[in-house]
TrEMBL record:
Family: Belongs to the PPR family. P subfamily.
Protein name stated in the entry: Pentatricopeptide repeat-containing protein
Start-end of each PPR repeat: 52-86
Record keyword Repeat present: yes
Key words of the record: Repeat
Gene3D superfamilies: Tetratricopeptide repeat domain (1.25.40.10)
UniProt xrefs under Pfam families: PPR_3 (PF13812)
Keyword field contains Cell membrane: no
Organism from which the protein derives: Sesamum latifolium
Length: 103
């Protein structure tokens, strides 16, 4: 899937941006391909594409669904370090994840 996305972008002479990152991440998440999602995210970071709050909300949601609270914590720390303000979606995502865990 990642390969197809890159090919489609190249054919249309489009450069990947935060919107294509978020769409890719959500697509991998929806298919349960968390490892591919993480690899995709790392590639986009190496390409010096800046994530936005939606990017982090997608990552938090994905980690919460599988109960990876350590990864959620890492994402939250990254957000704090780089001064990303939490939105209502961020709070709801975190509350939902901890609610599923029974915390």
């Amino acid at each position: 899937m990642e390969y197809l996305l890159v090919q489609m972008l190249r054919q249309r002479e489009c450069q990947p941006n935060v919107w294509s990152i978020n769409s890719s991440l959500r697509a991998f998440d929806n298919r349960g391909q968390i490892e591919m999602m993480e690899k995709c995210y790392e590639k986009f970071l190496r390409a010096v594409i800046e994530p936005n709050i939606k990017t982090f909300n997608i990552l938090l949601d994905s980690c919460g669904k599988i109960g990876n609270y350590e990864k959620m914590s890492s994402v939250m720390q990254y957000m704090q370090k780089y001064h990303f303000s939490w939105t209502l979606v961020t709070y709801n995502t975190i509350i939902d994840a901890f609610g599923r865990a029974g915390d």
